[in-house]
Design goal:
Layout (H helix, E strand, L loop, with lengths): L1 H16 L1 H18 L1 H4 L7 H39 L1 H9 L4 H42 L12 H28 L2 H5 L13 H21 L4 H5 L8 H28 L1 H4 L4 H14 L1 H30 L1 H4 L4 E8 L16 E11 L5 H5 L1 H10 L12 E3 H10 L11 E5 L5 H8 L4 E3 L2 E5 L20 E4 L10 E10 L4 H15 L5 E5 H44 L1 H9 L4 H38 L8 H35 L3
Parallel strand pairs: 3-7, 4-6
Antiparallel strand pairs: 1-8, 1-9, 2-8, 4-7, 5-6
Helix pairs in contact: 1-2, 1-6, 2-4, 2-6, 2-7, 2-21, 4-7, 4-21, 6-7, 9-11, 11-13, 11-14, 13-23, 14-21, 14-23, 14-24, 21-24, 22-24, 23-24
Length: about 675
């Protein structure tokens, strides 16, 4: 009973000083439940069959991601527990001096961990259940699904999974705490607060050498994922991507390791700044923090980097699909019959016998066996493209050719600009990585199609239409005069597309099903509809957004929590330092300003390098996402940065206020 009362007393005292730790535990439980309850959240929402498949895929992926998330949260909780135990070493030493055995101290910690875990589970689950109802609305809006039958939902599977995962984490923490207590000796516990933090690097020459090595490693890693991408990755396995990532991680650790050794030395050279006000105290505090947290700050920087990249990519993809649906789906349906050499099924088809349609248009794409991707690009441009776009098949792929009359029919229907060509001229239509063919035009590339020598009719690549399919996959096709197309062409594609003669969404869905019933059995014909593309794109958007948010938020709160716990812990240790500042005449306003500045610098330090990492990392992300037609991630990055600064800033403000309260309250009460 005595141990139980002492445990409650200790929890109350710890909560007062380490509210950030308890808040983070609650948020961790809440987020874990929130993302694992997706199946129950969507159970009462009316989705189509395609959307249901996407939802099931999302649920399955989130369950796998949750394993990784539990490892991150486990690391955070164990790390935080190590911090808290370290700060209580003197307390445990006093317990042992008064006759309490290590077994009873371990039991005391076990009770405290159990109570803290139980409280965080109850509060976190309650918050998660409430917020999951809001998430359901968000999911429904993403898929534009019917919520008329939606009711309050509770996920028993997510509840059990959350209890199981966090139960395991807390059990490991209990074992860890017991091990730490049993390992420590009484003399070490009693003198724990007297031990000075060790400076890991004192030699400035070593620090400078390591700093130069870190800059070289980071610089080369940046080069590999940007301008050096083609040189390094051409013909190599995707696993080689681990090299720049590894170099970036090692470079980050060495950067902070070297800065820890020379930060104070360098800043002291700027005398006007160093000796101004309480800056000397502030910079020594920051130097001490860096020296004792090199690995932790490096780890936080890397987690913030992944957070920025993940959320930027998620927000960019979401924004792209939301805005480009009409571009990706210019018509209600499209039928394509590929590589027709003889009679075409679509040539003889009366589409109105299947569905009531308007704006029906049938056009053709032709192939010349000698007009490959390499021939269409020109020798001056091909070497450059092979370097920067190594995964495109230039030699063997045939390039589509279209008659100008067909293209202008489509342009008129889709409200695009019509083109004019002389007999010996060509135009390039492209809406994906226009630089691929723009270089060819810049070099005045002359081409041969069906034995006709042609020159460019336009100086710029023309942004034309997309095939219905959900991505801007039109790398490029050529438009020539009708007379150029030979009657003995190798093969052709037949494109038939149109709009339904109705504005009723339910009738459009019925028409989609009619077309699917007719053409699904034809292997040579593909059918794409606006509704299917819309559903698939919204499904992909949901998957990327939720996984990005899940990992991003966990990384973010873990990073901010570690920084906050370190700052609060130091505030408890530094109470005497702040007392001495008051004794030598420092005003309360100056002391609070010093605390604010050192806390701000401490939080900014990992974030600033993470932002630099992200600027280069997003160039690689943009290269990957360019296969979807995404050409800029600036807006997604800005949105992510704002989101991160808000969450990060909230942790910083709470940390500063708690630290301010600690040094003020403790001193006033002569602790």
């Amino acid at each position: 009973m005595m141990l139980y009362k002492l445990s409650i007393s200790n929890i109350k005292k710890s909560f007062k000083d380490y509210a950030i730790y308890f808040i983070t535990l609650i948020l961790g439980v809440c987020i874990f439940y929130l993302f694992n309850s997706m199946d129950s959240q969507t159970a009462n929402i009316a989705f189509s069959s395609n959307q249901n498949e996407m939802i099931q895929l999302l649920v399955e992926l989130l369950s796998y991601v949750s394993i990784f998330v539990s490892l991150i949260l486990g690391f955070l909780i164990i790390y935080a527990s190590r911090f808290l135990i370290k700060k209580r070493n003197k307390e445990f030493g006093i317990y042992m001096t008064l006759g309490m055995s290590k077994r009873k101290i371990s039991t005391l910690l076990l009770i405290e961990t159990f109570i803290i875990g139980l409280i965080s589970l109850i509060v976190g689950l309650g918050l998660g259940v409430v917020l999951s109802q809001v998430t359901s609305i968000f999911v429904a809006n993403m898929f534009e699904a019917d919520m008329s039958k939606y009711t309050f939902t509770f996920s028993s599977s997510a509840l059990l999974k959350t209890i199981m995962y966090f139960g395991i984490i807390y059990f490991v923490v209990m074992i860890f705490n017991t091990f730490i207590i049993n390992k420590n000796k009484l003399i070490n516990l009693l003198q724990a607060n007297r031990k000075q933090e060790k400076i890991k690097i004192k030699n400035p020459i070593i620090s400078i050498i390591l700093f130069i090595i870190s800059i070289c490693l980071l610089g080369y890693a940046y080069y590999l994922v940007t301008d050096g991408f083609g040189d390094f990755f051409n013909g190599k396995e995707v696993s080689m991507m681990l090299l720049p990532i590894s170099m970036g991680m090692v470079g980050t650790v060495l950067f902070y390791y070297s800065v820890a050794g020379m930060f104070l030395k360098l800043i002291s050279k700027i005398k006007n700044t160093y000796y101004k006000g309480l800056n000397t105290f502030i910079y020594k505090q920051i130097s001490s923090k860096i020296n004792t947290m090199v690995i932790s700050i490096s780890f936080i920087c890397i987690m913030l980097f992944f957070t920025l990249c993940l959320l930027s990519s998620a927000f960019t993809i979401k924004e792209y699909f939301n805005k480009s649906l009409n571009t990706l789906c210019p018509v209600d349906y499209e039928l394509v019959e590929f590589e027709v050499n003889t009679n075409s099924i679509l040539d003889d088809l009366d589409i109105n016998s299947i569905v009531d349609s308007k704006d029906v248009l049938k056009v053709y794409e032709y192939y010349d066996i000698n007009f490959t991707g390499e021939a269409s690009l020109g020798t001056e441009n091909i070497n450059y493209l092979k370097e920067y776009y190594p995964y495109i098949n230039y030699e063997d792929s045939l390039v589509e050719i279209m008659k100008i009359s067909d293209y202008n029919k489509m342009a008129k229907l889709l409200d695009l600009e019509e083109i004019n060509l002389k007999l010996n001229e060509y135009a390039i239509i492209n809406n994906y990585e226009k630089n691929i063919y723009q270089g060819s035009l810049d070099f005045n590339n002359e081409i041969d199609i069906f034995g006709n020598h042609l020159i460019k009719g336009y100086d710029k690549v023309i942004e034309g239409f997309n095939k219905v399919g959900g991505t801007a996959s039109n790398i490029g096709f050529f438009v020539v005069n009708d007379d150029i197309i030979s009657n003995d062409y190798l093969s052709r594609n037949v494109l038939l597309f149109g709009n339904y003669n109705t504005s009723d969404d339910s009738i459009k869905l019925d028409n989609d099903k009619k077309l699917e019933n007719v053409f699904n059995d034809y292997k040579s014909i593909t059918l794409d509809t606006k509704n299917n593309v819309k559903e698939n794109s919204s499904g992909l958007t949901a998957i990327v957004t939720f996984i990005g948010l899940y990992l991003g938020i966990i990384f973010l709160i873990s990073s901010a929590a570690i920084l906050s716990l370190k700052e609060l812990s130091d505030s408890l240790d530094d109470r005497n330092k702040y007392r001495m500042l008051r004794q030598i005449g420092a005003e309360e306003k100056e002391i609070n300003s010093a605390l604010f500045k050192q806390s701000l610098l401490f939080f900014i330090m990992p974030l600033s390098l993470a932002i630099i990492h992200t600027i280069f990392g997003l160039k690689f992300c943009q290269f990957i996402l360019s296969s979807l037609g995404i050409t800029s991630m600036t807006k997604g990055f800005i949105e992510t940065l704002i989101f991160l600064i808000i969450i990060y800033g909230i942790y910083f403000i709470i940390t500063y206020l708690c630290s301010k309260n600690i040094i003020k309250e403790r001193i006033n009460n002569n602790y």
